[in-house]
Amino acid sequence: MCLALLVAAFFAGSGAHAASAGNASFKDVGNHWARNVIAWAAGNGIANGFDDGTFRPDLKISEREFLALVLRAFPEYEVPEQKAGEPWYVRYYAAAKRLGWPVDDMEAKREYTRGDAARIIAAAHGKRLSEVDAVRYLLNNGLARGKTSATPEGFAAGDPLTRAEALTFIFNVKHAEAESGRGGTDGSGEADKPGEVLALRGIAIGDAESAVLDALGEPDRREPSAGGYTWLVYNAEYARYAQIGTSGGRVVALFSNADVWEQEDGLKPGASLQAAAAHAGVALGDLKDREFYAYGKDGFRITLYLDLHANAVEGMLVEQAGAAGRSVGARADAADGELELAYERQIFELTNVFRLKHGRSALSWHDIAAKAAKLHSADMAEREFFDHINPDGADPWDRMASAGIGDYQAYGENIAAGYRNAFEAHTGWVNSSGHRNNHLHDRFETLGVGVEHVVDSEYGWYYTQNFYTPW
Q1: Which of 217, 172, 446, 465 is nearest to 346 (CA)?
Q2: Which residue has the higher pLDDT, 173 or 339?
Q3: Secondary structure of 238-264 in the HEC alphabet?
Q4: Which residues contact 278 (CB under 8 A, 6 or more apart)?
Q5: Pairing label, strands 410-417, 3-7
Q6: Which tens digit of pLDDT belongs to each residue from 82-107?
Q7: Residue 3: what pLDDT?
Q8: Pairing of strands 242-247, 300-307
Q9: Cα–Cα distances in Å, from 428 out to 6, 308, 386?
Q10: Is 130's pLDDT higher than 70?
């Protein structure tokens, strides 16, 4: 059970805040259907562009070039070191022959085809198959969708393999699970797109943490998650707010409620509930009464946080399927105090992103308001009540004054309990008219947040926001 209460704000005013975002890319990729896969491959050192700043996604490639891409993507296959004076591709063939992969064109004397690539991919899964059987294997296991249809004929095995197609095959192998159902075709004739590449500021699940740091720089903060992975938080610009979850040197989770997602189908914060329902494969009615909705797709666990007042997606959490099992409600290895602090900061930032999206100015953090909020959350947890008025009769302003805050132009308080993380608590307030009004109040200038977790309490997690504007 989740609860939320508020104290309404006083007075009114206006404010605005805006920011812009930009993304660097290869100059010839633009809106190419494989642009997100290309960004993923480049970010992980699998494929490079050319000296003139192009990537040439539709350039045909040879067997040795495809082999090099596959083996760079899977370092566990242990490619030997290049010997002095040895051609660059010899070591890749040495690894392939040790693995029993079907290779026979070291000198690149013939045109390499999509069917040839299918045989390599099948062999990497331990299947030494003919071209036809290899194609069927890819289609049946969701590793390809074909050019015109998910059939051996629609796969177009005899067509030459391009750089974009090669990287998409590799992406599918690394990210798709056989049971994920990735398949079908959109009839566009565009070659074998993955079922979906969910990218956040150019970062996708499976990317190396080093690639994140290269692309985005050092995070503004590192903090734990309830899923056991570490969030790299980028909060310098609320319009580009991003949380990148990493574990074992790889990206396993992505979250933002800002417009920084890069989905081809338009699913991102601000997308309609109709678009969200279509993506989740459910009826629109299944979302209309839900604050958040989680589902599995293409090897990911996706949680949509919904703004039912705007009939739109408020935020998105995408997790690698294996990393998502503990993400929402399970206890993490991190101490409760570390998670409480992480949730306090996240709620503050999600509130500012929400305000920005609705034309309001960003709030500043207020230490004393945060102290009062923390004390109230702890009091509710320890004395097991849920109200703005505590058992001693003190109201929000009494508590803020006791904490050391002077007179005010405006103040307000939101409280919530039972939500399992900052994302859920924020979404609960967004979907309640009074709490939403506090989030969007024109005259508020500062905010403090306090979170308390007491395992044996009635609701477990308790949240308080104190909004404040001094004279």
Answers
A1: 465
A2: 339
A3: HHHCEEEEEECCEEEEEEECCCCECCC
A4: none
A5: antiparallel
A6: 899 999 999 999 999 888 899 988 88
A7: 64
A8: unpaired
A9: 12, 10, 16
A10: yes
Which helix H or strand E contains 337, and what residues bound it? Answer: helix 336-357
Cβ atoms of 406 and 450 within 8 Å: the answer is no
The closest of 201, 235, 249 to 342, measured between CA atoms, is 235
Q: Identify the three-state secondary structure at position 110.
A: coil
Alpha-helix runs per DSSP H in 87-190: 90-99, 114-124, 131-140, 152-155, 163-175
Token duo for residue 335: 């101490």
> What average pLDDT score do residues 362-382 get?
96
Sign for the CA dihedral angle at 161, 165, 166, 170 comes to negative
Percent of the chain with pLDDT over 90: 56
Which residue did the predictor score with more confidence, 192 or 280? 280
**What mean pLDDT do residues 208-226 have?**
93
28: nearest Cα among 46, 14, 49? 49
State residue 7's pLDDT score.
Answer: 56
Q: Is residue 420 a contact partner of residue 459, using CB atoms and an 8 Å limit? A: no
Whole-model pTM?
0.63
Least confident of 15-19, 80-84, 456-460: 15-19
Distance of CA 407 to the CA centre of its chain: 42
- Read off the amino acid at residue 313: V
- Please state, as a whole number, how many other Cβ atoms lie within 10 Å of the Cβ of residue 137: 19
Q: CA 189 to CA 253: how far, in whole Å?
A: 31
Distance CA 326, CA 317 (A): 13
**Per residue in 243-273, is it b (16+ CB within 10 Å) or e — as a string?**
bbbbbeebbbbbbbbbbbbbbeeebbbbbeb
Indicate the Cα dihedral angle 69, 75, 76, 79, nearest 10°: 80
Give the HSE-up count for residue 332: Cα atoms under 13 Å, Cβ half-sphere.
24
